[in-house]
Amino acid sequence: MFCAISGKPPKVAVVSPNSKCVFEKSLIESYVEQNGVDPITKDALSISQLIEIAQTPQQYALTNAVNSSTLKSNYSIPNLLTSLQNEWDAVMLENFQLRQQLDTCKKELSTALYRYEAAMRVATRATMDADKLKQELTTLTKNIGIEQPSSEELDPLPEDILQSFIQRSAAVAKESRKKKIQALPPDTFTFEAEQNTYTMQEGEYNFSTRFTNGNSLTGKLTTLYSTNGQCYLLKDVKSLGSLHNVTLDAGKTTYALPLDGSNIIIGTDEGSLGIYDLESHQTRKLSSKVHDGPVVNIAWPNAVTEDFFISVGSDGSIVFTNLKETTSFSLIRPNFNTTFADVHKDGLIILLGSKEELFIYSISNSENDPITVPHNPNEAGEIVSAKFGLNGYWLLLATANSFKVHDLRKPALPFAVEPIVLENKIIKAFDVDPACKLLFLLTEGPDELVELHHYQYNKSDKTWILQWSKDTNVELKRNRIDNINYVQQNETTYLQVLSGNAILSVQLNN
Q1: What is the pLDDT of residue 246?
Q2: Dihedral (Cα; 288, 291, 295, 296), 10-degree rounding
């Protein structure tokens, strides 16, 4: 027999009625006095319950032989050995308890790890379900939108109106090819010392332009507008004397286009369209919520049609609206997140763009897939803006660090001019002259240095040649420039410069 605690043959063996195990009497009594339980089963146990086991003569002799003083005498110091034996018994008792605690810790740790793994699986599944619900909610929100009249309810553009528009556009394109726009000599462009400045009410402004009477040589009508409802019309580029404040009854202005010298077409963040009359100071609402979102562009190709103008919403929807009958027709609804758009001068193709993508839609073949303009955001950065050139066959594209010109006459849209690639500078805005021979780039560099660069197109090697670069803080006394607009009025050229809530008109001498 061996003690369940010390593992040695016991001198005085006792058995526990609970665990049926044999123990050294002194060890088990010490354990019970300290804990009051059976060391094996942990059941309640008292010393009186212990049962002493009678030994046979052979067992007694073996036990006494193993534990006899004869063996102890072999260690030369009996008292020391007795003390060591007592310490050994105590160590064995403590070791036994430690093994029990270790087993308990292992079981608890295994249970905790199992629960942790189960919780991680549940959390992962919950995260995946949440992402899936977000995607479904986004799709549902786009499809349903806010409870308001949707542009999907608009009637499609009648076929006879569409065919008339296509035929008239083809005739205008044929006529325009016979008339080439001549650029003014730009070799000695300088800033005029005297500049005209007009300060508007506080707000974040943007502008849109149209050529006066559709003639690129008779100047531009410029509309300055802000989301807080302020809207100004600039007719005289030199004096800046004819600016009119426009306020809307409802909705914030997201786009405003000068219709003529006394009327402005306005688009709101609610997708509504209206015309503001500067003479009567009244707004005539053309259509209510024809777009599922803010209006991002309005164009009136009056050379092609005098009855309809085109509007584009932030969802990419393209709508034709009758100026006289105030009726709107839906043409294309691609459900594309659109931040800017542009309509070709012939009216047959429309550009829709975001920071990452550009698509060209054909009005004459609206059922076909759009043309994707090649763009790699990782190399060229985000798209700043893009528009069609007035020469009719160029697409001008500005990204964060490059300026590109694509040839619309070829299906692959190759570069028509060698791209301009800038280092340590970000393009903020650009504009070109009507002949697409003069380029003005607005950039921001390190330390918020804003510069205006002037390039001239070199037809022989199809490149842009830098003529000069100017620090706007030095030349214009402005360290913030938001946008620029090139204006050619007869033989005089100007740059309209938007700086916060101020508009500057700078004459370019040549």
Answers
A1: 62
A2: -160
**Torsion sign, CA atoms 472, 478, 483, 485:** negative
User: How many angstroms separate the Cα of 200 from the Cα of each of 27, 190, 203?
Assistant: 98, 27, 8
Q: How many residues does the chain have?
A: 510
- pLDDT per residue as tens digits for the range 266-309: 888 888 888 888 777 777 777 778 888 899 999 998 888 888 99
- Residue type at 111 in one-letter notation: T
**Contact yes or no for 14/51 (Cβ under 8 A):** yes
**Whether the Cβ atoms of residue 251 and residue 240 lie closer than 8 Å to each other:** no
pLDDT tens digits for range 226-262? 877 677 887 766 554 455 566 556 578 889 888 877 7
Q: Where would I find the H helices in 15-77?
A: 25-35, 57-66, 69-73
**Closest-CA residue to 209 (of 223, 229, 227):** 223
CATH number at residue 415: 2.130.10.10
Evaluate whether 406 touches 395 at the Cβ level (below 8 Å): yes
DSSP character for 156?
B
For residue 375, being part of any structural domain is answered with: yes
Per DSSP, the three-state class of 420 is: strand
What is the pLDDT of the chain when averaged over all its residues? 83
Q: Are residues 233 and 329 in the same domain?
A: yes
65 and 43 in contact (C-beta within 8 Å)? no
Domain identity same for 76 and 172? no
- pTM higher than 0.70 for the full model? no
* Residue 230 maps to a domain: yes
The pLDDT confidence band at residue 63, using thresholds 50, 70 and 90, is low
Query: Which CATH number is 95's domain given?
Result: 3.30.40.10
- The answer to whether residues 445 and 432 touch, using CB atoms and an 8 Å cutoff, is no
Q: Are residues 181 and 100 in the same domain?
A: no
Which H/E stretch holds residue 450? Answer: strand 450-458
Residue 433 is encoded by which pair of tokens? Answer: 């002259």
User: And the tokens for 108?
Assistant: 């608890």
Q: Three-state SS for 175?
A: helix
Strand partners, 440: 431, 454
CB 336 within 8 Å of CB 295:
no
Say whether both 186 and 52 belong to one domain. Answer: no
Give yes or no for a contact between 28 and 17, defined as CB atoms under 8 angstroms apart.
no
Q: What is the widest separation between alpha-carbon atoms in the chain?
A: 135
How many structural domains comprise the chain? 2
Q: Which amino acid is at 276?
A: Y
* Residues of the domain holding 55: 13-107
Q: In angstroms, what is the C-alpha Rg of the chain?
A: 44
Angle between helices 25-35 and 78-144 (to 10 degrees): 40
